[in-house]
Amino acid sequence: MALAEMQTRSESASAEAADTFPKLLFGHAVQRGDRRAFREKDLGIWQSWTWAQAAREVTAFAAGLHALGFRRGDKLAIIGDNRPRLYWAIVAAQCLGGVPVPVYQDSVAAEMQFVLDHAEAHFAVAEDQEQVDKLLAVRDKLPGLKAIVYDEARGLRHYAHDFLVSYEGVQEKGRALLAKDPDLVARETAQGKGSDLAVILYTSGTTGVPKGVMLTYDNVLKTAANAVAFDHLTEREEMMSYLPMAWVGDHVFSFGQAYVAGYCISCPESSTTVMTDLKELGPTYFFAPPRIWETILTQVMIRIEDAGWLKRKLFHYFMGVARRAGGAILDGAPVGFKDRLLYRIGGWLIYGPLKNVLGMSRIRVAYTAGEAIGPDIFNFFRSLGINVKQLYGMTEAAVFLCMQPNGGVKLDTVGMPIKDVELRIADNGEVLYRSPGVFAGYYRNPEATAETKRPDGWTHSGDAGFLGADGHLRIIDRAKDVGKLKDGTLFAPKFLENKLKFFSYIREAVVFGADRDDVTAIINIDPQAVGNWAEKRGLASASYQELAALDPVYDLIAGCVTQVNRDLAAEPHLAGSQIRRFLILHKELDADDGELTRTRKVRRRIIGERFKSLVDALYSGATVAQVETAVRFEDGRTGTMRATLKIRDVEPAGPLRKAG
Amino acid sequence: MAAAKRIGEPVLEVRDITLSFGGVRALLDVSLEIRAREILAIIGPNGAGKTSMLNVINGFYHPQEGTIAYKGRVRQRMRPHEAAEQGIARTFQNVALFRGMTTLDNIMTGRLLKMRRNFLWQTIHWGPALAEELEHRVFAERIIDFLEIESIRRTPVGQLPYGLQKRVELGRALAMEPELLLLDEPMAGMNVEEKEDMSRFILDVNDEFGTTIALIEHDMGVVMDISDRVVVLDYGRKIADGSPDQVRRDTAVIDAYLGVAHEA
After folding, report:
1. Same-domain check for residues A453 and A503
2. For residue A272, which residues of chain B lie inside 8 Å, CB to CB?
3. Chain B residues close to A45, C-beta within 8 Å
4. Could you report the per-residue pLDDT of B9-68, keeping only the tens digit for each?
5. pLDDT tens digits, one per residue of B96-124
6. Quick one: A406 and A552 in the same domain?
7. Residue A205, phi-psi category: left (phi > 0), alpha (psi -120 to 50), beta (remainder)
8. What CATH number has the domain bearing residue A540?
9. What is the C-alpha to C-alpha distance for residues A378 and A368, in angstroms, rounded to an integer?
10. What distance in Å separates the CA atoms of residue A171 and residue A177, rounded to the nearest whole number?
């Protein structure tokens, strides 16, 4: 124990001395050179690199970038799935005093062009042909782009462009340069300091065009160090890096914290093999947005429903035990002898094997953030003994503002402010904060910066919330989205949408009501869960559209809406915003059609415009609505979809309007 | 996009082939050649003799008249396994995989012809036999990576959707390291997205490994996009042979597809 403590202390001491990522990297290469730092599954086998090997790879690549003409202050766009080489490119750019700009790998060419153009990135590292093709498509509009480095050569052999270089080619150039000038990278690295710009992360843009959030080394490292200390993370953690590299969540969990604590990150074989790879890896530290927890739970439930009679009975019986006792045992709360014994037996028969299949046997700490998580989902994982907690953060704060401590996990909160973070709730309910993670500003956007970072020293989060008596923060909605019905009743759309989405049958929901007489909703069903449900009842459907139009499916969803209304009726100030009418949309909301952001958040305004005829029908008293929408296929072609949708009324539960 | 590729000399020449089943003439006096490193599409209305042509090329059917020269060797009869040994691989119109076996095992069966150790060695599964299996496994893994089917490596192919089964079948054909790849309707029954994926894989195979490809396909958009040359069959006769553009403008082809009456 004392030894471990000493080790953590010496680690945090060295972390303070090294104030940039490149310095940390070379520090790790000396202190724990033989420890695994990166893993990637390739051709079915996990390949790994130690910190010392990673440092050599980064040095060669950095020198190669220098040979290509990459200088202090230059931006390096990085586009692709999570791969060690792309993580190395981040540090390589930082070694030279440059700024990495990770770009969402599923962006279409035009989105990519916007980011590269706005960030003034003259160099790009692209994973493969797919990404290179997108860059080439917009190259005419990016006159500043000097070189594209590709990692995967497949399909690129005949691309005769001299600005196109392979990753190995760059490293070779680098090694040649290092032979002449061995200290080049060390010299450049030494010039970096904590207050320098470390990274620009473009926010996915729930609100209009993406903004480039500039974070300094101090922002990321100090915040990451506080979070590492909060959960006592060590170099022995195992972590899977599978979320988009351009998202701050991945940047902090698989990069910032990994460098601070010195733990190993593992990249999956491909985006489709994450679940299998997770099982093989067995991470100790895991981060996933609610959507992924939900997907995992849905898959478990589907497989259980298909399992044999005995397995199903055992599962449901012991999950009942787990619901009663699991969470309490995890929190260290008192639990009766009988339940404790049953939980032990359940661990043997059900929870253990199940966690093993999910690759969650070794998880010490896991987090969910970004959106509210459904109670069923959250409680399911916690009752299995998986320590899922919630946190609150944002790109502009280098993530961590609030985190739930062990033993203080609650469903409806996002935790308490961590070390060095101060919170204040503004009069309009908006959450304001001060922390070492507060960003340097939006790149080339002083107006937006001034709106967020106010002269009084508080940064505006844009979220509405309140601090409970227990010191935990609770978030209700985006501050600007909290509206009022015509009669002045409080209307928090996201809160309602999340309540709807907690049902496994509902994938997305968009509610309307601001300045209207009552609240209505457009629903997207979950094709997997509803499809399974329908199949069991012998209801045939050939497509999403057919499934969504079935009367029994409408009944099913009406049941969910009624349940939500019952919950709302129980809360006095929200009782007025019960959902009165809804319809099920004929298509899935899709980021390619601009209806969702790349991180799959609904764009309420765009949906409101696009499906205006539906919204009008919801408020006209009609029983059906006509809709015609343009859809964009993945290859860029467009087509139209026409449909007639049914509208269903729902009875409110309890009194709608407050008396008096 | 890509620089002009080097299309070489004919690797396979079919001369004056006539094939009949009893009184039915499937192919009549057809001659065609397949050139090294090209993608040749064989198209035509239903019953035009396209699949018969592929079956003649890889030795399933033996034509009554005519000769086939493959890599300079003229022959009249060849058995399918001889064709396979000489580097001709194919996929089928109706997927023909081992449904109970996994993707990986199916692809490994494509390596059987390349295995040198005999049955006994393989049973012992030790020493040289193990080393050999590992070598083949690495090859199979390259194909899995190439076709982006990592996530279904361990899934029995019978459980896979049709589009993926087609991809596995292509994987098995590639495992034979073929010089000439025959694809019988590789995109039948696929949706637009699956077709695009498959087209990209076909182009990549041709590009990366220099494999010569002859394919039968009904989707004209796909054919015109990916082929270097198109041969059109109609009622067992060849009615056109040229670049996609030439074929598109050919009046005989237009007539065949629009259904001009044929004299008996």
Report:
1. no
2. 148, 150-151
3. 141
4. 899 999 999 999 888 889 999 999 999 999 999 998 888 889 999 999 888 888 888 888
5. 899 999 999 999 998 887 776 666 666 77
6. no
7. left
8. 3.30.300.30
9. 9
10. 10
